[in-house]
Amino acid sequence: MKQFLFNTIFFIKRFFIYAGPAYLVAVGYMDPGNWVTDLAGGSRFNYSLLSIILLSNFMAIILQYCALKLGIVTGKDLARACRDYYPSFISRGLWILAEFAVIATDIAEVIGSALGLYLLCGIPLIFGVVITIADVLFLLAFGQRSMRSIELLVTFLVGALMACFGIIIYLSRPDWYAVFNGFIPTVNILSDPDMLYLAIGIIGATVMPHNLYLHSYLVKRSASKNDEQKSDSIFYSAIDLCVALSFAFLVNAAILIVAASVFYKKQIYVVEIQEAYNLFTPLLQTPVAGFVFALALLIAGQNSTLTGTLAGQIIMDGFINVKLAPWKRRFIGRCISIVPALGCILFFGEGFLSQLLIISQIILSFQLPFAIFPLIHFTGDPVIMGKFANSRFIKISAYTIAFIIVSVNLLLIAQMIA
Fold first, then answer.
1. Which positions ≥6 away from 233 have C-beta within 8 Å?
2. Which DSSP symbol is given to 16?
3. DSSP-derived secondary structure letter, 391
4. Is 279 helix (H, G, I), strand (E, B) or coil?
5. Among 66, 213, 226, 309, which one is most buried in terms of CB atoms within 10 A?
6. Rounded to whole angstroms, how far apart are CA atoms 6 and 400?
7. Quick one: DSSP state of residue 267?
8. Phi, psi (rounded to 5 degrees) for 184
9. How does DSSP assign 214-256, residue by residue?
10. Beta strand extents in 14-106 (DSSP E only)
11. Is 102 exposed, middle or buried (0-12, 13-18, 19+ CB in 10 A)?
């Protein structure tokens, strides 16, 4: 018994040494971009697309595991590895595509934060979009703090986000038997163009390219020349990853479950976050649900801002060796991202913002292969990784994931043309 307690305490201590980076990564898997796809999927197709959320989470774990191995073993993040191992014209092309992914992610953050401000404080969306530039001040407040402080802040906000959806699920009272059945895949997902469209949006919102660059950078502090220490770092970082992405999975599944249990059974197809917010109070007969929903949205948008800024800086520094202060990077990126959001409001109306959110997630899905294939290449190369090169299982799983993503993207294009 004493030995068991000693081993348990030792394990917990070692785990907390390496815990933290995965929670920064997990934030990207529950940003506002997930909300529209999950709300639309649950309200239109009940619990059927829960299987896609589960599949996406498995994809995320495999790919992020490869990313953390790359950082720990080589001491290089994915962007730097592309610059070092590929010809300049290839790495520059990958850099441009990665910047598009960061912008698409930032658009989701802009919209999510602006909607949260509108729903909580009544600030008009057009002003809310402009106000999101002010999150630079938030970053400045933490810019002088250690990465550990940022990790603790993000972990706290993730907990708050989970608590919010725990409350909403309790109020919505879902059919748990139907929920569990929703995790079983059906062929309708491939045969129904509308369902496939939302499924790809969920994949794009869940498996995010900028997170691969971010994670490979954050774990570099665990890099060591000693193989035994590298094995130790990979083991505990992998556990940290599984725990963190389990939280992300629960949040994403909760959004879809709430949409299905509240809207689908009333035959209400929700395509806008504002619409969902307005319907919660009359359908659940309590104002608490709407308030908690809006608060969670604002938390998700601001939480993602921190990790988006870090990822943008890592990508720029790694690919082209240009360093910018985090607030400068955020200010430039945010100014670029508010243009499409403002354009949508001015020319198409506020209702088009939710469609813009879905489009941003589709863009991320199309960008994924250009981050995945280099990552699989590097982590599977014994010359680069030595004894830590991917096992056959990881290679097959990673390439299968890449094949699935490319295939569904091509299928979507073919259906759009038809």
1. 18, 72, 219, 222, 223, 224
2. H
3. P
4. helix
5. 213
6. 41
7. T
8. -95, 120
9. HHHHHGGGG--S-HHHHHHHHHHHHHHHHHHHHHHHHHHHHHH
10. none
11. buried
**Residue pointed to by tokens 């002003």:** 127
DSSP category for residue 285: T
pLDDT at 66: 94
**How far apart (Å, rounded) are the C-alpha atoms in residues 388 and 58?**
21
Counts for the chain of helices (H) and strands (E), in that order: 21, 0
Tokens read off for 42: 């649950």
Q: How many residues does the chain have?
A: 418
pLDDT of 369-403, one tens digit each?
A: 889 999 999 999 999 998 899 989 999 999 998 88
Sequence letter at residue 312: G
Q: Are the beta carbons of 237 and 21 closer than 8 angstroms?
A: yes
Between helices 78-85 and 209-218, what is the axis angle to 10°?
Answer: 90
Give per-residue pLDDT as tens, 284-308.
877 888 888 888 877 777 777 677 7
CA angle centred on 209, ends 204 and 211, rounded to 5°:
115
Confirm if 217 and 147 have CB atoms less than 8 A apart: no
Q: For residue 111, give the nearest of 353, 355, 330 by alpha carbon.
A: 353
- CA nearest neighbour of 406 among 359, 365, 363, 358: 365
Flag the least confident range among 71-85, 336-350, 392-406: 336-350
CB 201 within 8 A of CB 37: yes
For the beta carbon of residue 280, count every other beta carbon within 10 angstroms. Answer: 25
Model confidence at 151, in pLDDT bands (50, 70, 90)? Answer: confident
Contact 378, 385 (CB under 8 A): yes
